[in-house]
Amino acid sequence: MKIAPSILSADFANLQRDVALVEQHGADYIHIDVMDGQFVPNITFGANVVKALRPHTKLPLDVHLMVENPGRLINEFAEAGADIIGVHVEADIHIHRTIQLIKEKNVKAEVVLNPGTPIDTIQHVLSMVDQVLVMTVNPGFGGQIFIEEMLGKIRELSQLKAEKGYHFDIQVDGGIGPETAKRCKEAGANVFVAGSYIYDAEDPGQQISRLRKVLSE
Ligand code: DX5
Ligand code: ZN
User: Fold this and answer.
1) pTM of the model
2) Among 27, 72, 98, 212, which is least packed by CB within 10 angstroms?
3) Where are the beta strands (DSSP E) in the chain?
4) Could you read off the pLDDT of 177-209 as tens digits, one per residue?
5) How do the domains of the chain map onto residue ranges?
6) Which ligand minimizes its atom distance to the CA of 86?
7) Residue 137, phi then psi, degrees to nearest 5
8) Residue 207 near ligand 1, beta carbon < 6 Å
9) SS3 letters across 27-69
């Protein structure tokens, strides 16, 4: 089980400090939410922030691209030091080609599903990807409520993975805390993004320990 703190809820004026903090407390990935103000209403940061953080952590940088036509940005994010790049199937009419592009760069490829998007839409790229992200909130903002119906989607994906013998990780993102993480784990998820649960707390390190505890039970 892997924990990926989302720096969307970190202090943007102290990103280096907030990344180091979760690394010291056993985080597995740093989740970086890139938003373009088009695919989602919010705007966050670009490849220059990935590049700036790269020398300050040994953890894999897990980049979640919430942008229209992500194919045009793969090169830039790969060069900046992303270890995993996730692209939304809804944002790209050439999803297969974009995943090929990510892999050509020797970066792990992830495909992402919005809550309203069914698994059928990604069935023909599942053999290519290293990770599938099942969004458990509508993307754009931290601190939203977990959407219960997504547990069924995680189960469905996990069954398909077992049937076909695929090896991708199943990541969940949105409204994750100990309770929801536990239920997502039972449904088949193994990578857990958490933003506000970790960074909005007095003691982010303790929050990671709490998550780790329920995920190891
Ligand atoms: C939402 C982002 C998430 C966000 C999750 O669009 O993809 O990564 O940071 O925030 P929480 O954990 O607060 O729901
Ligand atoms: Zn995210």
Assistant:
1) 0.98
2) 72
3) 2-5, 30-35, 61-66, 84-88, 108-113, 131-135, 169-173, 191-194
4) 999 999 999 999 999 999 999 999 999 999 999
5) 11-216
6) 2
7) -145, 170
8) no
9) CCCEEEEEEECCCCCCECCCHHHHHHHHHHCCCCEEEEEECCC
Q: Which residues surround ligand 2, an ion (CB under 5 A)?
A: 33, 64, 173
Please tell me the predicted confidence (pLDDT) of residue 177.
98
Determine if ligand 1 sits within 6 Å of the CB of residue 211: no
To the question of whether residue 37 is assigned a binding role by annotation, the answer is no
First-to-last C-alpha distance (Å) of the chain? 11
Helices (H) then strands (E): counts for the chain? 8, 8
Tokens encoding 105? 């760069």
Distance 143 CA to ligand 1 centre (A): 7
- Catalytic residue at 33? yes
- pLDDT tens for 61-109 read 999 999 999 999 999 999 999 999 999 999 999 999 999 999 999 999 9
Catalytic residue flag (residue 173): yes
User: Does ligand 1 have an atom closer than 6 angstroms to the CB of 114?
Assistant: no
Ligand sitting nearest the alpha carbon of 136: 1
Ligand 1 geometric centre to CA of 176 (Å): 8
Looking at domain 11-216, what is its CATH homologous superfamily? Answer: Aldolase class I (3.20.20.70)
